[in-house]
Structure formats: structure tokens, C-alpha cells
Specification:
The chain is mainly β and 175 residues long. It folds into two domains: 2-63 and 150-166, OB fold (Dihydrolipoamide Acetyltransferase, E2P), CATH 2.40.50; 67-144, no CATH class. It has one helix spanning 134-137; strands at 11-21, 26-31, 43-50, 67-71, 76-81, 86-91, 94-98, 109-111, 116-121, 126-131, 149-156, 159-165. It has a five-stranded antiparallel sheet, with no helix packed on it. It has a four-stranded antiparallel sheet with strand order 7-10-9-8, with no helix packed on it. It starts with 10 loop residues before the first strand and ends in a 10-residue tail after the last strand.
Length: 175
Amino acid sequence: MILAGCGDLGRVEQGRVIAYDRETRRLTLIREATDASAKVPGVLPPVTVAAPQNPDEMGPAPAAGGLMRVDYQNRRIVIYDRAAQAFRTIAITPVAERRDVVKAPKSPAIDRAKKTITIYAAAEHALITFAASDELLAMPADTWQAGDVVRYYYKDPAQALRLMNVTRTDLSKSG
């Protein structure tokens, strides 16, 4: 009863960024599934949100990417395919692997001559190089990198009031 007069308290969403326009300060993301047992990489369709109008309410600008999940054990990855506007599971044939890589490289390595793509698997702390078809090599480079995870607070679903870049925020330094 006490909160009845307080109005709309707003909501919080979290998701992986697949596009970010620095000029317009708009980001497009795939929201995380709210059901923890869901085996999906996120909720479609993607949503577009304006960054907070006050720059102090936003952390570091997010990096965008189409890599949604790396399942190295089963040798497959899931990407967001912009052309199909859907998730796409791709079976991979690893040709090289480097473990204990703590930090992801700035961008994936695409070697058209060797027909390979090297991605960073964060959960495994590994760089994985796999054989790639001409179709995969023709996709945009950011298809092969994971976009940052962001959490945002809003009252209007199209306008974030606060935005935190979960991937790039070191919470151990807060407080």
C-alpha cells in the first residue's frame, strides 16, 4: 500500500550487444532469457535502446558482436545471423587451440588464405581456430566476437535511464 503512490519504479534488463552506434548512442541487443534453465542464447527479436541522456549514467561504451555462445566440448558455436535475423548454430572443426588466454584479443582473426577463423572462448579462456567455409569467411568480422553484456534500467523500453557495461566493469574495484 505504501508503494502505491510512488508510481512506476521501472525495470531492469540485461543482454548481449549486437550493434552500437556511437553517433546516435543507440544499442541493439539480444536480451538474456529470464528462465535460467533455458538453453537458448537469448530472446528474439533484438531490442534497440537509446543510451542514457546523461552520460554520467552510462559506463564504458559497449563493443558489439554476433558471437552468442561457444560450446567447445560439442564443437559448435552459436551466432546471431543478421541476414536471417535469427540464431545460427555452426558445427566447427578446430585446427588449433591456445589455452590460458586471460584477455580476449581486440578482434577475431580471419585468415582467408588458410580459410580459418580464430575466436576467443571466454568460459574456456581459449583462442580457438577453426576451418571456415567461404560463406563464413564472407560474414562481417564482428560476427566472430562476443558483444559486451550490458544491464540497463528503464521506464520507457526504448530509453535507458542507466546503463552498465557488465563486461567492462570491474566490480571488485567498487565500494
